[in-house]
Every structure is written in structure tokens, then in C-alpha cells.
Automatic annotation (TrEMBL):
Entry EC no(s): 4.2.1.24
Reaction equations catalysed: 2 5-aminolevulinate = porphobilinogen + 2 H2O + H(+)
Location of the active site: K213 (schiff-base intermediate with substrate), K267 (schiff-base intermediate with substrate)
Gene Ontology biological process terms from the UniProt entry: protoporphyrinogen IX biosynthetic process
Pathway noted in the entry: Porphyrin-containing compound metabolism; protoporphyrin-IX biosynthesis; coproporphyrinogen-III from 5-aminolevulinate: step 1/4
Family of this protein: Belongs to the ALAD family.
Keyword annotations of the record: Heme biosynthesis, Lyase, Magnesium, Metal-binding, Porphyrin biosynthesis
InterPro entries, A to Z: ALAD, ALAD_AS, Aldolase_TIM
Lineage start: Bacteria, Pseudomonadati, Pseudomonadota, Alphaproteobacteria, Hyphomicrobiales
Pfam families found in the cross-reference section: ALAD (PF00490)
Protein name: Delta-aminolevulinic acid dehydratase
Gene that this sequence comes from: hemB
Length: 345
């Protein structure tokens, strides 16, 4: 055939001449060979499951903007976490939807040792001690204005917020949190939390820094889930990162490493794969992505309309985080993915 092609086009090179006999498709020809040379793999060990907690008993509230995700009372959350643990999911991240009567300008309810978040940690740790619990010390679920910090005269005040976050982190550790993950993006909060934990005898509690949390449009469904969507006035651009800035993102992460962060997180995930790669390559810490609510909801919505294969896109996007350098992923798909991976063996 090659001789015929050369005869038809004098001087034309054969494919082997063009490639130097390096045929890249050789190892793609069969399932076994593709598996043999696969560079990145997604496992159950990579999954962290974010869940939403509400007060009351025996209630499971659907979140309209996040099909398949629910707000759970603590008793139901314990049952669901037990199922996740049986699937092999190593950790959960808890987020409370606090009653609006308990929210105020300073988010003072976060300093209640018996608040919804801390009660959930105690119940889950007692029932499912083998699973890791990650809690967020940011104030937005507790404030009447939906911001992540204390609001005074139209400004989020940094230093007062940091002191409160550090105090809240100690209470969360005392309630059973294994990892504190402050998502507020206040300057100095990682160092302040580390100092507070150490001084309170919680030196073994780790810190997962939301090192690069961007002022993103992908958070909308999450704000519905925790009940802040109608509260937020203005935006969060004075403390979240500009999504145009990668150098600033690296500087933020470097600062958190210097202050004592044990792990770094990039949030959102898919639009910021370049940031994940840079942090992993340049800083070398365990690096995580949060596949946020908007990313989840887009996949669910497109799948519901039949525009995409939801399961395949779910797995492809999660694997993209691993390829970019992630050691793990916070994803609302965690139980579904864990069940699928376990089935595949």
C-alpha cells in the first residue's frame, strides 16, 4: 500500500518514515494495554465528600440547584456518613445551614461550642470514628449578611475576623474536627489558627488552607445550600482572589505554607487546573481541588437534558484534577463515584 502511495505521489514519505516508526497508537489498541500504561488513576482514597447540615431530626431537604444533594439533620447525616465510610470515602467536609435567628453581623454563633456544626462533628465522630472530619472556620454560614468575616461600616475587618476564626477553630477541634479548613481568605488566618490550635493542645489537628479561593461565579448553588444566597450584599472581591491572577494565587499559597498550612486547596476546581499544577510543582504540599457546586450542577443539568453522558463527564472531570496534580478532590459526587469505583474493582 505504501509503495502504491509513493507511486501515486513521487517523493511522499511513508508514515513509518514520518514517525521514525514510533507508532503512538500501539499501546492504545486494546483495553489491557491502555490500562497498563495509564498515567493517572482516580481512586476512592482521593474523595472528600462535602455535606450540608440542618437542625432538627429525621429530615432530608433537597437542594433545588444541586440535584441529588440534600441538607441533612444530624441523625440522617450520621447514617449517610456511615454509608460513605463503608464505601471507603476517607473524609467528609461539613457545612451548616444555620437558623437565621442565630445569625448576626459578627457571626457570633460560630463561637458557641454547641452550635450546629460542632454538634454534627461530635455525633459523626462518635458514630464513625474512622472517617476524617474537615470543618470550615469561615463566618459566612453564621453572619446575617452572608460575608465570610465581620462587617463594620461596609468593610470586612480583617484582624478582628481572624481572632474570631482562630477561636472558632479551637472549638471545632474540641468537637472532633480532624482538619480545619478556613475558607475566608483573611490575611494571617492560617498562622493565627495554627497558633491557637497549638496553644489549646490540638497540635495534631491539621490545616487545609483554602489557599487560592477565587471570586468565582461558580458558587451560586452552594449559597442556596447554606442559606446565604438572599443575604449577601455586594460581592467578596475585597478578600477572594481575582480569577485573572495566577502569580497572586501562588503568593497567597506561599504565605499560607509559611504560616503553617499542612495542605493547600484550590477553589473552584476545573477552571483553575493551571493553578493546581503550579502549586503542586512549586510548593510540593498535598494539594486538593474543590469541585464546587456550580461545576456539579452544570454536569447534572446537562446530563438531565441528555446533552452529555453524566457518568462519563463526572469521571473525566475528576480525573483531570488528578492529572493536574491533585492528591484529592472535594466533590459532591463522592458517594456515587466511590460506589462506581468499588463496582469496577
Amino acid at each position: 500500500m505504501d509503495r502504491m502511495l509513493r507511486a501515486a505521489r513521487p517523493g511522499a514519505r511513508s508514515v513509518d518514515e514520518i514517525t521514525g516508526s514510533r507508532r503512538m497508537r500501539r499501546m492504545r489498541k486494546a483495553d489491557w494495554s491502555r490500562r497498563l500504561v495509564q498515567e493517572n488513576r482516580l481512586s476512592v482514597d482521593d474523595l472528600i465528600w462535602p455535606i450540608f447540615i440542618i437542625d432538627g431530626e429525621n429530615r432530608r431537604e433537597p437542594i433545588d440547584a444541586m440535584p441529588g444533594v440534600f441538607r441533612l439533620t444530624i441523625d440522617i447525616a450520621v447514617e449517610e456518613v456511615e454509608k460513605a465510610a463503608r464505601l471507603g470515602v476517607p473524609a467528609i467536609a461539613t457545612f451548616p445551614n444555620v437558623d437565621h435567628s442565630l445569625r448576626d453581623q459578627t457571626g457570633s454563633e460560630i463561637l458557641n461550642p454547641d452550635n450546629l456544626l460542632n454538634r454534627a462533628s461530635r455525633a459523626i465522630k462518635a458514630a464513625v470514628p474512622q472517617i476524617g472530619i474537615i470543618t470550615d472556620a469561615a463566618l459566612d454560614p453564621f453572619t446575617s449578611h452572608g460575608h465570610d468575616g465581620i462587617l463594620r461600616d461596609g468593610t470586612i475587618v480583617n484582624d478582628e475576623t481572624v481572632r474570631q476564626i482562630a477561636e472558632a477553630a479551637v472549638l471545632q477541634a474540641a468537637a472532633g474536627a480532624d482538619i480545619i479548613a478556613p475558607s475566608d481568605m483573611m490575611d494571617g488566618r492560617i498562622g493565627a489558627v495554627r497558633d491557637a490550635l497549638n496553644e489549646a493542645g490540638f497540635g495534631d489537628v491539621a490545616i487545609m488552607s483554602y489557599a487560592t479561593k477565587f471570586a468565582s461565579a461558580f458558587y451560586g448553588p452552594y449559597r442556596e445550600a447554606i442559606g446565604t444566597a438572599g443575604l449577601l450584599k455586594g460581592d467578596k472581591k475585597t478578600y477572594y482572589l481575582d480569577h485573572a491572577n495566577s502569580e497572586e494565587a501562588v503568593r497567597e499559597a506561599e504565605q499560607d505554607v509559611d504560616e503553617g498550612a499542612d495542605m493547600l486547596m484550590v477553589k473552584p476546581g476545573l477552571p483553575y487546573l493551571d493553578i493546581i499544577r503550579r502549586l503542586k510543582d512549586e510548593l510540593g504540599l498535598p494539594t486538593f481541588a474543590y469541585q464546587v457546586s456550580g461545576e456539579y450542577s452544570m454536569i447534572k443539568a446537562a446530563a438531565a437534558h441528555g446533552w452529555i453522558d453524566g457518568e462519563k463527564v463526572m469521571m473525566e472531570t475528576l480525573l483531570s484534577f488528578k492529572r493536574a496534580g491533585c492528591d484529592g478532590i472535594l466533590t459532591y459526587f463522592a458517594p456515587e463515584v466511590a460506589a462506581l469505583l468499588n463496582k469496577r474493582g
